[in-house]
Design brief:
By secondary structure, the protein is α+β, with helices and mostly antiparallel strands. The protein contains 6 helices and 10 strands, in the order ββββββββαααααββα. The longest helix is centred in the middle third of the chain and has 23 residues, at 105-127.
């Protein structure tokens, strides 16, 4: 994902800049797409609502990334995007995107790469839905660190990331802490033993 960050910066002058407060929805799952977004500052929580009404966090968007790429040409947004803190967001309508890509052919490649990455993320989520909770936690913890450089997420949010209870998440977090796999600093989970967390992510029976 790092190769995608800040690639869209040259085209920000084409977009409209909006300032969002914390916990504001930028786009809703299911609504007709009206364009794409770029996060200049802050953080976006991307969530997926199941047919049963269960909300699951599937991604945390850091600054420098496009999001909502699937909402072009009136296609419905597949997820919802909500700010987790005060954020600056650029909006690009379908017409503006078309104009950017005509004038700057390389922009089409950046958009396509970002869209493919997001679909891969969705596929990974689906592939891990039936995995044991501890394996899912290890996988997503590594994913958060790889994408954002840290795992800044409280246990309630992490439970929504995994689709389980906060109690279950807390038990595993405490277990990992006691074994020296991780440390906790405020709301951030810091991995101490990457090899062990990777092992758990690939093998649910590791203890």
């Amino acid at each position: 994902m790092h190769f995608l960050r800040y690639q869209w910066e040259p085209y920000l002058s084409y977009g409209q800049l909006f300032e969002f407060e914390k916990n504001k929805v930028v786009y809703h799952q299911g609504e007709a797409g009206r364009g794409i977004f770029y996060l200049k500052k802050g953080e976006i929580k991307v969530t997926l609502l199941s047919d049963k009404g269960d909300e699951r966090i599937i991604n945390m968007v850091p600054p420098g990334m496009l999001f909502g790429e699937h909402g072009v040409d009136g296609e419905p947004y597949l997820t919802s995007g909500t700010t987790t803190c005060p954020s600056l967001v650029y909006y690009f309508s379908d017409d503006v995107i078309t104009s950017i890509c005509k004038k700057n052919p390389e922009a089409a490649g950046i958009y396509t790469d970002s869209l493919i990455y997001k679909f891969r993320t969705l596929a990974e989520i689906i592939a891990h839905l039936d995995s044991p909770v501890e394996q899912q936690m290890a996988f997503y913890l590594l994913k958060l660190v790889q994408e954002n450089g840290n795992a800044s997420m409280n246990q309630t949010a992490f439970s929504k990331y995994i689709g389980t209870s906060r109690i279950t998440v807390n038990k595993i977090i405490q277990k990992w802490k006691q074994k020296g796999y991780i440390e906790l600093h405020k709301r951030e989970i810091i991995i101490i033993d990457f090899d062990k967390i990777r092992e758990i992510a690939s093998n649910p029976h590791v203890d």
